[in-house]
Amino acid sequence: MADKDIKEDESVPDACPHCGNKLSSWQQVLLKVDRALVCKNCWYRILLDVRPKDDNEKKDLKTNSKDEVK
Ligand SMILES: [Zn+2]
What we know:
This protein is mainly α and 70 residues long. The protein has helices spanning 3-11, 25-34, 53-69, and strands spanning 36-38, 45-47. The model has no long low-confidence stretch (mean pLDDT 79).
């Protein structure tokens, strides 16, 4: 029913990973929109992962095919 909403919430932390300070719901919205938010408690910059794994996989495939050609 509300699967989409649950998944979106999971991608945004509800607390600062550095000091554990709880983020307000509007701070979580800002983090979701900007992909970055500065914790007001410890000034740690919280960044949302933008899935760099996809790029790494592509690079790995390229190097792998190079080895195969060799
Ligand atoms: Zn913090």
